[in-house]
Specification:
Layout (H helix, E strand, L loop, with lengths): L5 E4 L6 H12 L2 E4 H9 L3 H24 L5 E4 L8 H10 L1 E6 L2 H8 L13 H19 L2 E4 L5 H13 L10 E4 L7
Parallel strand pairs: 1-3, 1-4, 2-3, 4-5, 5-6
EC number: 2.7.1.71
Subunit structure: Monomer.
Function: Catalyzes the specific phosphorylation of the 3-hydroxyl group of shikimic acid using ATP as a cosubstrate.
């Protein structure tokens, strides 16, 4: 049994919510998505929060939610793509669980997010270029906070989740060896 919280970080479209839900189901943990928690508590969507409060207002809400959620036990938490921008979030995540960075190349992120209108940072003339810029800015922060880095791509959710679990099980009874990098090979049958 995995007796620690699992926190997923990575860019928008990397699969944090989808993989997080699956991980929670197969580990018996409770699943939380920090963005959905913010929407649930405010009663409005992330784009509306960005429109009214700007990104800085949203980030303040995000810090409060993450500080609260990391206090829970037996959870899988999918964070927002920009959660790592705040040093306090990185500190809280590192101290309260195992952090898994789900990495995907920008073109893959673009394919996954291109039809999603709920991403205010991609409301630009060139969303692919914006994704590249965001990843360039945030990748060092994801890597700083990560205990494990899993490169995703076109792999099925089950294959990625199973690789995350395989890596996490190595930590049973002890602290992880930080910065393991794993590339999950595509497995069509998984």
């Amino acid at each position: 049994m995995l007796n620690f919280n699992i926190f997923l970080v990575g860019p928008m479209g990397s699969g944090k919510t989808t993989i997080g839900r699956y991980l929670a189901r197969i580990t018996g943990k409770n699943f939380y998505d920090s963005d959905r928690e913010i929407e649930s508590r405010t009663g409005v969507s992330i784009p509306v929060i960005f429109e009214i409060e700007g990104e800085s207002g949203f980030r303040q809400r995000e810090c409060k939610i993450i500080a609260e959620l990391v206090q829970l036990n037996n959870i899988v938490l999918a964070t927002g793509g920009g959660a790592v921008l705040a040093a306090e979030n990185r500190r809280e995540l590192s101290q309260r669980g195992i952090v898994v960075y789900l990495y995907a190349p920008p073109k893959q992120l673009y394919r996954r997010t291109s039809h999603d209108n709920n991403r205010p940072l991609l409301r630009t003339g060139n969303p692919l270029e914006r994704l590249k810029c965001l990843l360039k800015e945030r990748d060092p922060l994801y890597r700083e906070v990560a205990d494990v880095i899993i490169k995703t791509g076109k792999q099925p959710v089950k294959a990625v989740a199973n690789e995350v679990l395989r890596q996490l099980r190595q930590y049973k009874g002890g602290a992880p060896q930080r910065k393991s990098f794993v590339h999950v090979k595509s497995n069509k049958g998984a």
